[in-house]
Amino acid sequence: MKLKVDGREVEIGSGLSVKDAARQAGIYIPGLCDHQELEPYGGCRLCLVEIDGIRGFPSSCTTPASEGMVIKTDTPALKSLRQSILEMLLSEHPCICINCERKGKCNEVREAMRKVPQTMGCRYCPKDQRCELQKAVEAIGLTKVDLLPLGGSKEIIRSPFFDRDPNLCILCGRCIRACSSRSQAISFAHRGFDASISTAFDAPLEESGCRFCGACVDVCPTGALVERGGRWAGDPEEIVVTTCPYCSANCQIDLEEKEGKLIRARPEGSKLCVRGRFGLEFVHRDRLERPLVRRGNRLVEVSWEEALSAVAGGLRSTPGEQFELLASGVLTNEALYSAEVFARNTMKGEISVTDVLPILDPGSLQGPILAVGDIAETVPNVELRLREADDLLVISPWKTRLAEVASNWLSPEPGTEVKVISSLTAALSDGLVEGLPGVSAEEIKSASEALRGITVILSPEVGPNVVEAATALAEAAGGRMVRLGSHCNSRGAIRLGLREWSDRRLLSGDLKAMYVIGANPARISEKIRESLEKLSFLVVQDLFLTETAKMADVVLPAASFAEIDGTFMGEGGCILRLRKALRPKGRPDWQITSELASRMGTMWIELTSPEKVLDDFMKRSAKDAVVQEHPDITAQTKVSQDKPFLLYSCPSLYRFGTGTRTSKVSDLRYLEESDVVEMNPKDASALGISLWDEVSVQPNSSVSRARVVISRKVPPGSLRWRRSLRKAEVRAAKVWSDV
Amino acid sequence: MRRIKDPSRLEDAKAEAKASWNSLFCGDRPIVCTGMSTCGISAGAREPRDLMRSLLSEEGLEAKYVDVGCLGLCYSEPLLYIKKPGRPMICYGNVSPKTARSLARSILINDESGDSALGAIPELSCGEISSIPSIWEHPMLKSQVRIALKNCGIIDPENLGHYIARGGYAALAKTIGITPEAVIEEVKTSGLRGRGGAGFPTGMKWEFCRKSKGDEKYLICNADEGDPGAFMDRSVLEGDPHAVIEGMLIAAYAIGCTQGFIYCRAEYPLALRRLEVALQQAKDAGFLGENILGSGFDFDITIKEGAGAFVCGEETALMASIEGKRGMPRTRPPFPANAGLWSKPTNINNVETLANLPSIIDKGGKWYSAFGIGRSRGTKTLALAGAINRPGLIEVPMGMNLRQIIFDIGGGVPGGKACKGVLTGGPSGGCIPASNLDIPMDYEAITQAGSIVGSGSMIVIDEDTCIVDLARFFLAFTQRESCGKCTPCRIGTKQMLGLLEKITQGQATNADLAKLEAVAQAVRSGSLCGLGAGSPNPVLTSLRYFRPEYEEHIVHKHCPSMACSGLTSHSIDQSKCKGCGLCVEACPVGAILGDHKKPHRIDQERCIKCGACILACPGKFSAISKRSGAVLEVA
Ligand SMILES: Cc1cc2nc3c(=O)[nH]c(=O)nc-3n(C[C@H](O)[C@H](O)[C@H](O)COP(=O)(O)O)c2cc1C
Ligand code: SF4
Ligand code: SF4
Ligand code: FES
Fold first, then answer.
1. What pLDDT score was predicted for residue A715?
2. pTM of the predicted model over 0.95
3. How far is A191 from chain B (nearest CA, A)?
4. Residues of A at the B interface, defined by Cβ within 8 angstroms
5. What ipTM was estimated for this complex?
6. Which CATH number fits domain B467-555: 1.20.1440.230, 3.40.228.10, 3.40.50.300, 3.40.47.10?
7. Which chain A residues are Cβ-neighbours of B339 within 8 angstroms?
């Protein structure tokens, strides 16, 4: 359609607002509540325009553009109206710097000004220079605020990762709208001048369903919501687009770098979760910078030369069948490939990877969907996509986030998910319907009626028998199965034909030497730790001196994801880039292993640059890609009826894998709650347990201590324990309170 | 009532209802009707009614008791109407338990002496009312035309038979016999405009919604009535709920809606109860639900209770509230007719708009449009309040001039005080000065005068009311009620309030007045919804007509009405004071000092300006006066 903005003819597509139309005509209209990723709102009233034939001053962000419109964006009336409205906004905003006569002459004293407990003006504000309100003041040309000062001194609301300063809030509602498609943790409270943004009952964010994705922080135009990390860092010197180093969603991230530091990470066209948004500061925490070699019972710093020859010397004498290389699924294609070449060709031994399962990608999600497992905790980005699904069936014993929004939620008794899936298959194929504990025959029947063409989505933590049952169901329903990967490069590992690691060989004492890259098996269990201890030669290549590294004979410092160029394999086999944003602390993994290979004289190919490695990787993986049998590592424990509680160990958003990296981020550690069990209020009152009471939990021979959180989301008779390191498990457990 | 399966059976039902109406009002038992709307009940109607009942039954007299709605004569409430056998129904005002006793006696001895009272009610009398003046000749009622209020105070609102006996649901039967387009045409002919405030032509609004595409359409009755001075809708809902339901049925049929909502504030418990009763009766009788009167037309109504925020009366906020969201307005387009409740085409009408419809359909659009002037046709209900002799609820033809309304109907300003002006349209309106009262009650004329007709509240102010303080009062209201969504309303109202406070406290400068005007203009032009856009009206209109009064406050620190406590002081004329000490006793804060028999003084620091001393000072001395401005007492 054609229309006119300030005399300029523009031709635009349909479905656009007047503001969009102006933008296409190259005309800037100020505005603070509007945001390109959010629904229009029309609250700030700075984007008002005049349109022939429309009374008054409509807001351009909410008014749909239509054929033949004649729009004026810059009349004297509009100018003065915008100035008045902006002046009102500023009358309740700390803005001494706008009225200040010595503007910009305070740079030398800025550090001192920041010590003022309250932001009094722009120079005191962490958002200075990045603030959209400042930009609006400039664009609208306001030089003085001459109304009654209305600003108050409300208390700053602190939460993990970011703070909310209500005194800087302009109530544009962007944060609420950003949160509404994610967690709905915040909303408007009160009316009139007292209106504010708050959680239900003013509870802390931690208790309001917030998942700390930071979407609110990213859209806030002012300093009202600012991340604590990099708070005063200001604008970045460089922004590098890279791929998140956690789960298999492979979100794209803008790494903001300044003075050699990662100051912020922001989403690049995707919705980040807390791990990608706030969980990357591990790159600056406790990093190893120099290789270590064991001298007696101490690890001492040595040169690379010395360390590499120690590794070569230690491994040269190890027969291939007594060697295993364990790599992490978060390593790049280059690292995995080079490690594989090293393990198989140089060492003639085995290589396996933590948590790789044959994965099938979600692709485009259409039609009915069945979700099993707690995807919100494992692959949060996929969960957000599933939340939008119209026709979502969830099978979960407890009320997961997806169960809350699902059109149908089946809540079987703990540990019986497989039976429900099989009953659905039976109902579909033979019309046999049978009720199960927690799920009635009618529920099965009506759920089975909506299964045609279903996409079954499995979270990575579900056990192998669930996978089997789900495969059968997908087939019977003429649909497909999607199995989400656990790690950011699980796909790369699978492409290379790498197996999932099993601790069998290690535990049985068959191994003499191990080379561990980016994994921390010592955290998994005491037994594994003891077996590692018994190895005669252990090499660990990592970012940190992990529990496993502490036992190593040689520790090689690796470069983190932010310090290298490299690739992951993304959905559908596409190649996703990692780009170097920081000076490396250690060396890229692929470089270390290929150098070792050539040192040990068995290198059959020169790996000299990441591009060359990738090139080789692609050639190799295309040829050899095999889908592997999934190893059976989680035989579900049979639940015996006489034991009082069913204990679920399940994944947590705030802890990734063995938690080595996430535990370096203090607020993630705070949120992780690995020592917390969730208990139904009925059970709690029967046992006389109240919130935060400490209890003993005994799932097997060992007893653990945990604090209790009372939650209706878990059914009576069961406990949810977010501490699973690898796979979801159900066990019978005794619980008692010592007091 | 039995289910009425087709329109022809409605005639039978009407005959039946009329017969029982006649047997009630022409029978040989005395009848006592009580005005039992919220206004009557709070004026204390229950007590004389119950007393009457117990007195009569003690004497073994089985009278009939009927609770009716509000007749609108609020100033003389409680109202009791009494009909002795063979005599007309007589309306009595200001009934106290004492009058109840004497009325009971007069029934017992069948005495005719009190029979004139406020007048006879012909509708409730059997035949001639002979020499007794009709209530409709009462000065407050004489020039009224009652269409929306035609049953209020006449019928028992909880008795469907009464409604039908007075012609109820005939318009529905007529409606379903013609095409929806014909119904819309009739409403267009009537010239009816929305009575909720905006005055948008009703027929046109329906047509938009009828033409809008959608498998499901909704109809909402806006019974939020958030304007603090308004109570018209409440009276209609309490006095004649079936008229609103029938109006909704007509609208739903014309537009093609299958589901209706009545959004009524929870602070109207009696209206809610009577609506519930009426809805159930209408369902049982086959006026609501499926296949209404055998026509194949389905329509049902659900009540939604609102939490009483003023902004929830605004249509988009109201819809958000029904959807269970925070009651916040949104910009239009999309208009409700295209995407309203749950994004479906929706039509919203006010209670009074809907209550007019049965008569319009019944008697024709032409008949309705015969009342009124220009583009304002028909009648408008008004809530008269403030400094007026006869406050109450009235309905007048559009075009009647304000002076006639205030003086002829309302009886003018009490206490011999001068009328300063009248505030129309509540917090979004403005004050039209006494000099301008010759303008007609007409949407355009009132808007031109700087105010709005609004929902119909009219607050008369006398010379004792300070115009600045009045503006401050309304701004305090809108500021509190702003939803907080948009900047101009959320902050602008706070700024205006702050500036007005400065003026009433004598702390403002001319620059503040300029600021006030600038903010007011920006709030009017920049706000998202009518609440914000209308909020500067009390300021802008009063500045237009009463600017010198503002300047008096600012320049001379003088409040001409002696109303702004920050600008007034009380002082004792030393030459007149005899030192009697009565004022000392009256003063609640002990601000008056002085020895017995010697002239007293007021400690200005302590004085809270309550005026108790002025009342206490014996008239023969009249030593204490209230002053404002430069002439402050030198202590
Ligand atoms: C702040 C505000 C409050 C309103 N309150 C009411 C109300 O209480 N009752 C009402 O009928 N209309 C109210 N309205 C008007 C409605 O938005 C709407 O115009 C009306 O219900 C339409 O019905 P009508 O066309 O029959 O008048 C209000 C408007 C605004 C801006
Ligand atoms: S916190 Fe930021 S995004 Fe949220 S309403 Fe306030 S200014 Fe807007
Ligand atoms: S004008 Fe006031 S009530 Fe209306 S949307 Fe804006 S803040 Fe809310
Ligand atoms: S950007 Fe349009 S009203 Fe805020």
1. 83
2. no
3. 5
4. 42-46, 48, 56-59, 62-64, 77, 80-81, 84-85, 88-89, 91-92, 146-148, 150, 170-171, 173, 187-188, 190-195
5. 0.91
6. 1.20.1440.230
7. none
